[in-house]
Every structure is written in C-alpha cells, then in structure tokens.
Amino acid sequence: MNPGITALAYVIFWIAGVCESVLISQWPRYISSISSGRAEIHCYQNDTDYDYLYWYRQLGGREIQLIVYLVAGTARFETDFTSGFEAVQRKKQWSLTISSVQEKDEAVYLCAASYTVQQQTQEL
Description:
By secondary structure, the chain is mainly β. Strands 5-1-12-7-8-9 form a 6-stranded mixed β-sheet, with no helix packed on it. It contains no helices and 12 strands.
C-alpha cells in the first residue's frame, strides 16, 4: 500500500476577538508516494503578511496535531515531529517536507497563518 497524503487549506484567523478569513493557497492537493520517497507540500499567502505560519496534520479519525510553526523563517517543531520533517519559509510561501514517507504519515495536512502565535489547535 502506498501512503497517500491529502493537503487541504483551511484557514481561520482570530484577530482582536474577530474572526477573519483570508485566501491561502495550498498545493498539491493530493500526493502519492512510494515508501521512503520524499513528499513536499506548499502554502502561499498572496494578500497578507502574517508572521506566524503553521503546518498541522490529522490522522484518520483523530484530532488535529500541530507539526511546526515558523516565525521569521525559523521553524519550531513539536516534540513528535523533530525528526523526518523540514519546514522552510520563502517570503509569502512556506513548505513542509517529509524526508522519507512511511505508511504512518498517511494523513490530511493543513497549513495556516496568523499575526500572533496560536496556542490551541481547537481554533481550526
């Protein structure tokens, strides 16, 4: 079985207690990769300059997990994701790479952005 990765863009921002939606593009929509292959997912914010950029993952039927957030080009990975993942920012684009895709990586991957750091994934 080849692990598949689904990439979806779902973005909600909380600013001063008001919810604002903006356009974030995420691609590719689907990735099929043979085991040990490399997978890359990208996001782009075209009309905004949010400082905090996020990558999340949701394994089938489970809660959303924060993988990493980037601020000023520096990636800050959560404990379970310090190995096998790479995150980079190039201006308004940020990317997530899984260096060696395994069956356990089959999930929905989500990107998000905000002006300030988000403490809870429940806001998504």
